[in-house]
Write a structure and sequence with these properties.
The protein is mainly alpha-helical. The protein has 2 domains: 1-100, no CATH class; 102-175, Arc Repressor Mutant, subunit A, CATH 1.10.10.10. The chain is built from 7 helices and no strands. Belongs to the sigma-70 factor family. ECF subfamily.
Amino acid sequence: MASTTLNNTLNARVGDLYRDHSPWLLGWLRGRLGGNNADAADLVQDTYVRLIDSGRYPPPGQGRAFLARIAGGLVIDLHRRRRLESAYLEALAARPEPVAPSEEERALVLDLLVRMDRVLDRLPARASQAFLLSRFEGLTYAAVAERLGVSQAAVRKYMLKATQACLLALDDEAP
C-alpha cells in the first residue's frame, strides 16, 4: 500500500512539473537548438524520461533549474551525436563505393561510436585524451606522454583504464 502511495505521489510531482514547466522548457530548448521545434519537442520528452529514470526530483521552487540542467546535458549529447554522425558520414563518403557499408552496418557503427564517446566522456580527461591520441591519431605512447606532459607509465595506465571501460561498455551491450 505504501508503495502505491509513493508511486502516486511521484507521478503527481512529475505531472505537476510537466504541466508547470514543459512550455517554458520547449522554448528554452528551441532557443538552444536554433529554433528547431522538432528536436526541442523530442528533448522535452527525453528530459522528463531522464527525470523519471533518475528518481530524483527538484526541491520546491527549483523545477526550472533542475529541468534545465537535465535538458542542457541532452542538448550536449545531441550535438555530440550529430558531430560523430557527420564525421562518420564524411569518412564513408571518402571511401570507394564497393567497400561502403550497408545502412544497417552504418547504424551499428554509429551506435558503437556514440557508446564509446559516452564511455570516454565519463573517464578522467587525460585518460580519454590519451586513448584518442593513441587510437585515433596513431601516436605512440611516448608521443602521447609528451603531448600530455606526463610519463609513459601514466599513459600506459590511462590506456588500460580507457580500454577496460570501452570493453566493459561493449560487454554491457552484448545479448
